[in-house]
Amino acid sequence: MKMIVAIIRPIGINPLKEALCAANIKGMTISEVRGFGRQLGKKEIFRGVEYLVEYVPNLQVEILVKDSDVERVVDLILKATKTGETGDGKIFIHPVDDVVRIRTGERGEGAI
């Protein structure tokens, strides 16, 4: 199993959810996050004055999948969220040793 963690622009969350549901990928966790990448923030204009937003607001999406679904889910994330502009985000893929469904105690892929 793998945990796919994607840092995306907030505007991409609805297209991503629709794409995952259409592909029968069930469940994701969303967290509001702030950070910066190579661009070190972004410039905004407020009342005619330009200023630097040091920590850009984004969403962190976590999706636990079977190994066989990793590439398909990564492709869905790319297609649903990519704008081609700086700051589109990143996707991280982590191995997961086990998962336990708290309600039933079920373990492994069946608990996804």
Total separate domains: 1
Mean pLDDT equals 93
Run of helices and strands: EHEEEEHE
**Secondary-structure-derived class:** alpha+beta
Number of strands: 6
* N- and C-termini, Cα separation: 9 Å
Which residues form runs of ≥5 with pLDDT under 50? Answer: none
Write a structural description.
This protein has 2 helices and 6 strands. The chain is of the alpha+beta class and 112 residues long. Strands 2-5-1-6 form a 4-stranded antiparallel sheet, covered by helices on one side. A two-stranded antiparallel ribbon has the order 3-4. The longest helix has 12 residues, at 70-81. The model has no long low-confidence stretch (mean pLDDT 93).
Q: Main attributes?
A:
6 strands, two-stranded antiparallel sheet, single chain, Alpha-Beta Plaits, 112 residues, 20% helix, alpha+beta
Write the layout of secondary structure elements.
Elements: E1 2-8, H1 13-22, E2 29-35, E3 42-46, E4 49-53, E5 56-65, H2 70-81, E6 89-95
Antiparallel strand pairs: 1-5, 1-6, 2-5, 3-4
Helix pairs in contact: 1-2
Structure summary:
GO terms for molecular function: ATP binding; enzyme regulator activity. This protein has 112 residues and is of the alpha+beta class.
